[in-house]
Amino acid sequence: MATLRFHTIISNDLQKYKNALLCLGTGLGSLEVISVFLRSNLDADAKNLWILLNFSQQEISTLTSLFEVVDIGSEKIDSRSREITYKKGGAVHVTGRTAVTDILEEKIDPNKVKGIVIHNVDKLGSACNEMFIVNLLLEKNPEISVKLVTENPFWVNLNDIKEFGISKVLCWPKSRYEIAEELENFAGNWQKITLQPSGAALKIHNLLIDMLQVCINEIKRSNKNFDLQEIDLQSAVLKKHYQILKSTMDFKLRNLPSKTKTLCDNIEQVRKMLKKLEHCDSLEFLEYLLRFMKFIREQVSDYRASEGIWHNMENETEELIKVARDRVIKIDENNVNFNLSPSKKWETLGKMVKNTIETEESGSILIINPYSVHQAYLKQYIVAYLKGTPEVILEFKLKCLLESFNPLLTYESKNQLIQEQLSNMLNELKSKYEVSFSLHPSESFPTPVFNKELDESDLILQEYVLDSFGYSWNDFQVPNWDIKILNRHQIDNFMNINPTHIFICSYDLSLIRKIEIYAAICRDLEFPLKNVVLFAAPLYENLLYSFSQQAEIAGFKHLLTCEIPRVISLRENAAKIIVDKREFSSILPYELYKQGIRVIPAQLQVGDYILSPSICVERKSVTTDDIFQSLSSGRLHDQLIKMKSYYDRCVLLIEFREDTEFSLSATNSRSIACLHLSQLLNKIPGISLLWSTSPEQSARFFLKIKQNQPDPILSEALHKGCSSSDALSMLPSIPGISSENIHIILQNFASISKIAQSSQSDLEKLIDPKSAGLIFSFFNSQTVSHRLN
For the ERCC4 domain, which residue ranges apply (predicted)? Predict the structure, then answer.
């Protein structure tokens, strides 16, 4: 796929500075810039190694279509294969966890690394494996270049990323002359269609916006000792309120007042309803709303839920349900009629697609629908519309609604005549859409909950049923036409389709800019793009679009005027802690590193962290449910017994995270865990229990426990819990031991401890000097890094 001239200009700008943060306007093509940058560097010397971090799999797939990238992020790729890949050089994508262990185990030669490119830097926290990696490599090779890239300047906090040591912030908004000039003229005819919402839809939208505003005002009122003026409708729509609360109140999210946290949850719930209103027909929105209210009413005994808007704005909530119901159901003199009209957006889309097919002989149509949850629904609607039977989709959804709920929820539901009509209507729809199977959430997918997808089960059922009635997207074909429907996660690959017509179902800033770039490429390459249609409505997405533009401008303005924080110098003579390799999926090893600890990775059989020859820590995370699973399976019992067998001081660390409540019994389903844990500790006396609110706090606790304690001995830690055969099976993970020399090692050493006790000269008598040096260094010097003070 081609790039534009301004991508090369930005790449050249990035090339000028050793350590820089590149901030692009959203949707302007960060992957294209990175591809141009890598090509120019690796064309000069293909043996240089560029490490790519924090890319999603979809982004790596797109980047690979632009430039050759080797992806070794999969856990299926063994350490030996990764080491060979690093030695070859080129652009290599790897996960943060894998890169940390490979650096500490010396599988990556820092002197071979030319640079590091970290994408989506706005999504990184103040402690992450990416920072760990950069600091580890820079300590060994200060000449390594670090490039940070983001398309979301509004979210970048320079203090959070100061340890990357950036010296320059490069800002490239769309208004820059080099970009604006190239994007002035597009290929194809561009058309924006503004769909006016019905009065009922507009009223629902305004009710929901009012609820957002109530949440904002209540957060400010209940935290009046703090300056929270920055929290407004814009921050709530853009989900910036969390960041403002954390920075202003100097709290982690777990320590926010209960009411504030509930109101933050309510903001997310209302935001989702606003998106549903924009993209669903009236029938689907009503069903979703009824499901959600059922979910809320079941939480009536939850003290946190009672602090939110749904239990304290009952009149507004009832009004919301009434308006949503009235735009679907009409009752006239005891007669019930349902409005089975599709959403205006999809109805207009269907008409335009059909008209395009009928008026032109051939072509390729691309429909971009941002939300994957509606993908199957939209595909079947287009099939039904082109077949001339769009009512089938809505009738089936009405059947689902009547089977699940009494949609009246008022005195009318007591009217026997009305109830009979509803019953007759349901029976008629059942006979029309009779199916011989049913899906149950427990069998095919997780039980839906509001915070994920309440409507997931019905969408899956609908897809299966309507496919069986001849509305399968995969089986539907229009002669001489190729029709594709992609969601937000698939959009980066659309350029390979070469569409003649593009229909964008979302007024989204990033999507629109990506299409503008594609249209500019089509102009230069004379691709046959004829028509681009944007659908817009004066509802939530229009608000989101406007706020996104304002936020981007504010973000660039802030980055251009603020001072870049400076990195502090290194600390020498650090204490050591041995860390199990599997722990590098958490950020605790990096927090230890930040506290001045030298982190030594190992494949441990006993414990997760060895603080001294006599102190062992087993870490359990509440966030990942590790503690609950270990308790229920009995694995924790076995782990503690094993620890007691080998160490004098055994610690069980139960660790929380900033966005989790500091309580094991936060929910009824987990409250029994406290009982099981106390019974286990009574059964195995001598285990110290350490509660930590965050990895950062855990690191501070470790420092206190290590005071005046000797450093752990790696060979001893590796040998504990292993039989001789088990220990020797770990040999391939030790630097210097390879498939070529492992048989010699096995013939001459009965245990790992024997290897560790050998001198370098003894090892050189058996294997080559370089491998001998790596093995000796691994067991004796543990050459891992220090941190920034």
Answer: 576-658
Q: What tokens does 494 get?
A: 């659309």
Is the per-residue pLDDT at 452 higher than 70? Answer: no
CA 48 – CA 37 distance, rounded (Å): 13
Task: Examine the fold and report which residue of 495, 521, 536 is the final residue of a domain before the chain moves on.
Answer: 536
Residue 639 tokens, joined: 């782990």
Q: Give the chain's mean pLDDT.
A: 83
**Does the pLDDT value for residue 667 go beyond 50?**
no
**308 and 423 inside one domain:** yes
Q: Which residues neighbour 681 within 8 Å (Cβ) at sequence distance 6 or greater?
A: 652, 687, 689
User: Is residue 313 in a domain?
Assistant: yes
Q: Which two tokens stand for residue 523?
A: 């102009």
pLDDT (0 to 100) of residue 464:
66
Residues 215 and 75 in one domain: no
Cα first-last separation, the chain: 45
HEC sequence for 576-644: EEEEEHHHHHCCHHHHHHHCCCEEEEECCCCCCEEEECCEEEEEEECCCCHHHHHHHHCHHHHHHHHHH
State if pTM tops 0.70. yes
Exposure pattern of 712-736 as b/e (b: 16+ CB <10 Å)? bbbbebbbbbbeeeebbebbebbbb
Tokens for 168, please give them.
């320059």
CA dihedral 645, 647, 651, 653 (to 10 degrees): -80
Amino acid at the residue 673: A
Q: Indicate the number of domains in the chain.
A: 4
Per-residue confidence band for 251, with pLDDT thresholds at 50, 70 and 90:
low
Whether 618 and 636 share a structural domain: yes
What average pLDDT score do residues 136-159 get? 91
Residues 156 and 235 in one domain: no
Residue 461 — φ and ψ, nearest 5°? -60, -45
pLDDT value for 685: 86
Query: Which CATH number belongs to the domain containing residue 743 in this structure?
Result: 1.10.150.20
| H/E stretch holding 81 | helix 79-88
Backbone angles phi, psi at 147, to 5 degrees: -120, 120
User: Tokens at residue 517, please?
Assistant: 């770039």
| pLDDT at site 305 | 62
SS3 302: coil
61 within some domain: yes
User: Does 756 lie in the same domain as 705?
Assistant: no
Both 311 and 365 in one domain: the answer is yes
Write out pLDDT tens, residues 740-773: 677 677 667 766 777 888 888 888 888 888 888 8
The H or E element containing residue 485 is: strand 481-486
Q: Cβ neighbours of residue 389 under 8 Å, at least 6 residues apart?
A: none
Give SS3 for 85: helix
Q: What DSSP state is assigned to residue 184?
A: S
Distance between CA atoms of residues 426 and 448, nearest Å: 24
Residue 558 lies in a domain: no
- Predicted confidence (pLDDT) at residue 595 exceeds the cutoff of 60: yes
Residues 317 and 399 in one domain: yes
Of 702, 719, 736, the residue that ends a domain is 719
For residue 664, the enclosing domain spans: 568-719
216 and 141 part of one domain: no
Over residues 260-269, the mean pLDDT reads 90
Residue 631 CA to residue 25 CA, distance in Å, equals 48
Residue indicated by tokens 């009065």? 199
pLDDT 10s digits, 121-140: 988 876 678 988 998 898 88
Q: Could you tell me if residue 406 is inside a domain?
A: yes
Q: What is the CATH number of the domain that holds 579?
A: 3.40.50.10130
pLDDT at 373: 65
Residue 494: its pLDDT value, please?
Answer: 66
What's the pLDDT tens digit per position in 692-716?
888 888 999 999 999 889 999 988 8
At residue 566 the predicted structure's pLDDT band, cuts being 50, 70 and 90, is low
Phi, psi (degrees; rounded to nearest 5) at 338: -110, 135
Across the chain, how many H-helices and E-strands are there?
Answer: 33, 20
